[in-house]
């Protein structure tokens, strides 16, 4: 068997990102919870394979499938812009197990105010870690900015949940089951922009088609953050809308009335099943490497690009997750 050629483009995903199906296959791999079980040594080995290959060094005996596997292991644990190892619960592969637990508990314990406050707080704490870990660009964010974003998002989520809970007291029980989703949707609109506020201040890197950095753009940051907010809200819809309807029906049946202890694990399982598909499919709604027309950039950056590269009409950026 000959040595692996050096013309495999591992800067890009293995599947065509111009199609939804290609992006879905990519994110089913990125969000695979089994990546959480990999040891530090396995992560470092994958990083070495990827970095060596990018430097023109092929690990002896390496196959193309092994190279792509190493690339996806690397992508699952390291930030694409900074190269830092992402904290375990901040990785996209932790989305399904973590959200299954937290979302399941939000849907189970939605009746009492203390439990509503606790699980909304825990959810926003987790979201803050995820949003920071999967931000776009390499611009630093201060501890003060992180703290303000965290407090604002958590306060917004809890206030929304408690406000809606009080409004639905006299409505059918099924309506009350959807309060957690409304709170999560509102919090996403607060948490993501605040945790990524640095991008809105200094912009995110934009590049040409070959990946050469051309400057930083706030306009690209706004578009990327908007796309992520939409993806996150859509991601929550199946897991927070389907199980409540099913559970509301099942809890009226004799089977669950005789076995009330089955309610919690059943609801948790339904949430997990929805998230296994919703997480990668909603991440795939927009390309990870998104594009924006030069005419929509800031005047200074637009003028700079048109002066130095007059043939460029579209630039690219990492929208974050």
Task: Please provide a written account of the structure.
- This protein has 321 residues and is mainly α.
- The chain has helices spanning 20-30, 40-54, 64-77, 95-108, 113-133, 143-167, 173-176, 179-195, 197-202, 218-250, 254-258, 263-283, 299-308, and strands at residues 204-207, 213-217, 289-293, 314-318.
- The longest helix has 33 residues, at 218-250.
- The protein is globular and about 65 Å long.
- The model has no long low-confidence stretch (mean pLDDT 83).
- This is Sidoreflexin.
- The chain crosses the membrane at residues 266-286.
Keywords:
321 residues, mainly alpha, two-stranded antiparallel ribbon, 13 helices, membrane
Describe the secondary-structure layout.
Blueprint: H1 20-30, H2 40-54, H3 64-77, H4 95-108, H5 113-133, H6 143-167, H7 173-176, H8 179-195, H9 197-202, E1 204-207, E2 213-217, H10 218-250, H11 254-258, H12 263-283, E3 289-293, H13 299-308, E4 314-318
Antiparallel strand pairs: 1-2, 3-4
Helix pairs in contact: 1-12, 2-3, 4-5, 4-10, 4-12, 5-6, 5-8, 6-8, 8-10, 10-12
GO biological process, one term: amino acid transport
Subcellular location: Mitochondrion membrane
Pfam family, one: SFXNs
| Average predicted confidence as pLDDT | 83
Main pleated-sheet profile = 2 strands, antiparallel
Class from helix and strand fractions: mainly alpha
Question: How far is it from the N-terminal to the C-terminal residue, by CA?
Answer: 39 Å
Report the order of strands and helices.
Answer: HHHHHHHHHEEHHHEHE
Number of strands: 4
**How much strand?**
5-15%
User: Strand arrangement, largest sheet?
Assistant: 1-2
Radius of gyration: 22 Å
Low-confidence stretches: none
| Helix percent band | 55-70%
How many H/I helical runs?
13
The coarse overall form would be: globular
């Amino acid at each position: 068997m000959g040595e692996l050629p050096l013309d495999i483009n591992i800067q890009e995903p293995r599947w065509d990102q111009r199609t939804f199906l290609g992006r879905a296959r990519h994110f089913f791999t990125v969000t695979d919870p089994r990546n959480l079980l990999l040891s530090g040594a396995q992560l470092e080995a994958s990083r070495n394979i990827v970095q060596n290959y990018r430097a023109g060094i092929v690990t002896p005996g390496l196959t193309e499938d092994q190279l792509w596997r190493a690339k996806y292991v690397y992508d699952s644990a390291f930030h694409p812009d900074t190269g830092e190892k992402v904290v375990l619960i901040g990785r996209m592969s932790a989305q399904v197990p973590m959200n299954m637990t937290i979302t399941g508990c939000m849907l189970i314990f939605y009746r009492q105010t203390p439990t509503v406050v606790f699980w909304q707080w825990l959810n926003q704490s987790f979201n803050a870690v995820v949003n920071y870990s999967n931000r776009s660009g390499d611009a630093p964010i201060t501890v003060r900015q992180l703290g303000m974003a965290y407090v604002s998002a958590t306060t917004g989520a809890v206030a929304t949940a408690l406000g809606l809970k009080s409004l639905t007291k006299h409505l059918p029980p099924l309506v009350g089951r959807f309060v957690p989703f409304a709170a999560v949707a509102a919090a996403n609109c607060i948490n993501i922009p605040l945790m990524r506020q640095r991008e809105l201040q200094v912009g995110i890197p934009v590049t040409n088609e070959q990946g050469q950095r051309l400057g930083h753009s706030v306009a690209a940051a706004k578009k990327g953050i908007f796309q992520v907010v939409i993806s996150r809200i859509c991601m929550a819809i199946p897991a927070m809308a389907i199980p409540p309807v099913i559970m509301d029906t099942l809890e009226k049946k004799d089977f669950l009335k005789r076995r009330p202890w089955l309610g919690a694990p059943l609801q948790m399982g339904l949430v997990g099943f929805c998230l296994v598909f919703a997480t990668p499919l909603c991440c795939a709604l927009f390309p990870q490497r998104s594009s924006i027309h030069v005419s929509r950039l800031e005047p200074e950056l637009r003028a700079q690009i048109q002066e130095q590269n007059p043939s460029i009409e579209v630039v690219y950026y990492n929208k974050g997750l």
